Amino acid sequence: MAVGSPDLTSSNLRGFNDERLVEELRKAKEELFNLRFQSATGQLESHGRLKAVKKDIARIYTIMRERELGITERPEA
């Protein structure tokens, strides 16, 4: 079983355009910040979510880098 959000799988992310990837990355980083803040204050209930969000961020960065290097194609419209 893969770690991460079910709606941010690699196959789904590959279908997103660059602007949508940047938006998803922004949302994931914001969520990670909030989770870390909750963890520091002792309010975090689901510690597994931290790992999942980190994996999502790494997955988004990987796809962005693959496109930059020309390994994968950008989706058509």
UniProtKB/TrEMBL annotation:
The keyword Ribonucleoprotein applies. It comes from the Bacteria. It holds the Pfam family Ribosomal_L29. Keywords: Ribonucleoprotein, Ribosomal protein. InterPro entries: Ribosomal_protein_uL29, Ribosomal_uL29, Ribosomal_uL29_CS, Ribosomal_uL29_sf. GO terms for cellular component: ribosome. Belongs to the universal ribosomal protein uL29 family. HAMAP family: Ribosomal_uL29. This is Large ribosomal subunit protein uL29. It comes from Spongisporangium articulatum. The lineage of its organism: Bacteria, Bacillati, Actinomycetota, Actinomycetes, Kineosporiales. The gene is rpmC.
